[in-house]
Design a protein that fits this description.
By secondary structure, the protein is mainly alpha-helical. It is built from eleven helices and eight strands. Strands 1-2-5-8 form a four-stranded antiparallel sheet, with no helix packed on it. Strands 6-3-4-7 form a four-stranded mixed sheet. Keywords: Coiled coil, Signal.
Length: 430
């Protein structure tokens, strides 16, 4: 493909042909060589083009082969004519390249337009980002600007971007769908949480409102940031309330029964205990605090246990004081009752003695009128008649024998049973 690159080669060639190379001829051949070098570089570049046809490639290769063979047998004039012919062919091939590239550019532009049309159709699907829709419009605008281009590079540059964008758009759509599925899952979690016992009215309203906002994205969404922000907010709310619900559940499971029992005990102490006004006021306040905790009024997780501990101490302190007062009052009452019983017994005994005395006096008086049997006298002692006793009225003592019967009353043995038998002395004996 190359001409001889040194003067010695040129000289030898023409000696063979019967001509001696002069310096002028050598310079002329050098110019031919340089011209061919330039043309050779251009041909190489044309061969590298994807737009060269097989026919054009074959024509150029044929011309190159002729020139290579002409180096061995043709003179400089013939070679120049061949180079001129090759140059003409090269110019024609270059025109073909331009035309071919223009056709390819148009073809690829048409294909790109078809891809963008499909993307436009896809952009109408749910969960396509608005920014991706706008990007498709920008690609269409750029394609319109390339309508008259005869170069493939600008078209391919846009096509490469569209290919990358298509992947990105699909990923964005998939990501958005996944986020929305998470929102649906959060709504299910909220529904389960709303069934729980220990949620306040405000917390239920927050969950219900969060469900409504999540639902807005179920059919379609076009902003990834908005959906992510809602996902984070919804997740934070649900996790917070789930943790709070668990803490409250634990608090009530541990303390609810004993708090209710304590409230009953406080009521009983208020109704039956011996309390001063300050203690009653304090216990009533503690009972109200416990009832508010049970109703979750101004409640925080753990309040039930804490308030039980404090109220239980107040209750036991008050009960201890009440029990002390009740015990003291009982002791005093028992002492008073014993004293009263003793007094009543003494009064009964005194009344009995008085009654006996009066009865004895009456019987004595009756005996005086009835003339009981005569006493037996022996050794100065008067022996009471059979069935009788002598009664010393002043002492309530009875005797069987006396020295001076006038100082005694004579009563029957039956009457004497109501008195005590006296001990013997100088004036009376049994």
């Amino acid at each position: 493909m190359k001409l001889r690159r040194d003067l010695i080669g040129i000289a030898l060639t023409f000696l063979t042909a019967g001509t001696i190379a002069t310096n002028a001829n050598a310079q002329a051949y050098q110019e031919v060589y340089e011209e061919h070098q330039v043309q050779e570089t251009q041909i190489k570049k044309v061969f590298e083009s994807e737009f060269i046809s097989n026919d054009d490639r074959e024509r150029l290769l044929t011309g190159i082969d002729r020139i290579n063979k002409a180096q061995e047998q043709s003179n400089r004039r013939n070679i120049r004519e061949m180079l001129a012919e090759e140059e003409s062919q090269l110019a024609e091939v270059k025109q073909h390249l331009v035309a071919n590239e223009a056709r390819v550019a148009q073809s690829e532009s048409d294909k790109l337009a078809e891809k963008l049309k499909k993307l436009e159709e896809k952009s109408k699907e749910p969960f396509v980002l608005d920014e991706d829709v706008q990007q498709i419009k920008e690609f269409n605008d750029r394609l319109v600007a390339l309508t008259q281009t005869k170069k493939v590079d600008p078209v391919r540059a846009v096509a490469d971007e569209v290919a990358l964008f298509t992947t990105k758009m699909n990923l964005n759509q998939s990501s958005l769908i996944e986020l929305v599925e998470e929102l649906k899952g959060f709504n299910q979690s909220s529904a389960e949480l709303l069934k729980k016992k220990y949620l306040s009215k405000d917390e239920k309203q927050l969950l219900t409102q969060d469900q409504k906002v999540n639902t807005l994205f179920f059919e379609d969404a076009d902003n990834m940031t908005h959906v992510k922000e809602q996902k984070e907010a919804s997740q934070k709310l649900i996790e917070s309330l789930q943790q709070k619900q668990a803490a409250i559940q634990k608090d009530f499971d541990t303390n609810e029964t004993q708090v209710k029992e304590l409230v009953k005990s406080v009521d009983a102490l208020l109704a039956q205990g011996d309390l001063i006004s300050e203690e009653k006021e304090s216990l009533t306040k503690e009972k109200d605090i416990l009832n508010q905790a049970l109703k979750m009024i101004d409640y925080q997780p753990g309040d039930l246990g804490e308030k039980y501990t404090l109220s239980n101490k107040t209750y036991h302190d008050a009960r201890k004081k009440s029990d002390g007062r009740i015990a003291e009052a009982k002791k005093k009452a028992e002492e008073e009752a014993a004293k009263k019983a003793a007094q009543e017994k003494a009064l009964r005994e005194a009344a009995a003695e008085e009654a006996a005395r009066q009865q004895a006096a009456a019987q004595s008086q009756a005996s005086n009128h009835a003339s009981p049997p005569a006493a037996t006298v022996s050794g100065g002692w008067h022996q009471a008649p059979a069935g009788y006793k002598y009664l010393k009225v002043e002492s309530g003592l009875t005797y069987g024998q006396v020295k001076n019967p006038n100082n005694f009353s004579l009563i029957t043995v039956e009457e004497a049973a109501n008195y005590r038998a006296g001990h013997g002395n100088g004036s009376a004996k049994q």
